[in-house]
Amino acid sequence: MGNRQYKYKGISQEGLSVEGTVEAADEYEALVQIRQSCRVVTKITPVRKLSAILSMEIGPRQVNFQELSMLASQFSFVLRSGIPLAKCVRLIGEQIENRNMRKILKEAESRVIAGWTLADSLKEADSEAFPSVFLETIRAGERSGTLELAFGNLAVYYEKQYEMKQKIAAVMTYPSFVLATAVTVVMIVMVKVIPTLTSVFAELDGELPFSTKILIGISDFFRNHLFHGIIAALAAMVLSLCCIRTERGRLLWNRMKLKSPVFGKIRILRISGHFAYTMSTMLSSGLSLPQALEVTAKTLENYMLAKEMVWMAQKVWEGYSLGDCMREKNSYPDTLKEVCALGEETGELEEMLYSIGKYFDSQADYAEKRMMSRLEPALLTALAVLTGFIVISIYLPLFTMYSLM
Q: Hey, which residues does 46 pair with through a beta bridge?
């Protein structure tokens, strides 16, 4: 392989900010060259040539749940064996099959060697590949000195997310197929069969059944307003995306996700367990309560709850108790609020949070299983009702036609 060009930024021996380019076989050799003139290397990136840009992979850049779980599990296992972080990144990067991930880890390794944190190295290598929850949890683990534990928690968290996604997909496959088939058949019936029946009834002076009139009305509406409906749906989608990008809209959207039926309860339970585990880890690592709240806020996936936690951290700095702050916001389950209040009073907040974290995880698992066991029968029942309505609406006019002939 030939040499490649690398851009770099750093601090010279005299303490001045410098930048430039060097040619080297790889990033390690480039780093050695740069360190001859720079005391600290703050950034190093390969210069992309046109051929490299044309050969870039096309597809989604963000890593999926299964890959995140496997990556976190590998990091947790290797770090527990005592291997230095930079070498750990290299070992995992050499074994991983995903080419994009292998490239990210290779770039991250050079930054870790240069003194960067792992979270910053991964984000700088590809800012869109990892969710913010993943990066902030790693950052919290590095800050508290419990990086292997943070990766272990991430492995469990994303494994459960992946399992839930797979279960939902499995449950929805058959009903989705039936629903798609039913919609196709209904559209054909509405366009071809119902208008024919309508003209025949008009000739025989017959009156259509009420259910058939409803079916015809729906058919006429879609045929006359389909284009307008598509435009309205696209406009509503664009407007919703614009609203979500605003501060108020983002808070409202995240509040709605927590209030949604069934899924909202599961989200609250998962977030409560994540909050309890992370807070327990931060406190056991020596961080003060407000510091632990600030770090934990960055790891929460729900923007509204993260904002509330930042507010709680500020209030705790001012001398308020965590229990009172959680009661005032009233976003978390009562059990968690009371545990936090009692833990503060007894001085056993760390242990109590760890125990309640297990409780919320088990409750979330149970809620997910209940949801899955009820989702498929509910969907099939709804499809049966829809199919029955269509069949009755079509056959009733046929029976009436025979009496009129």
A: 6
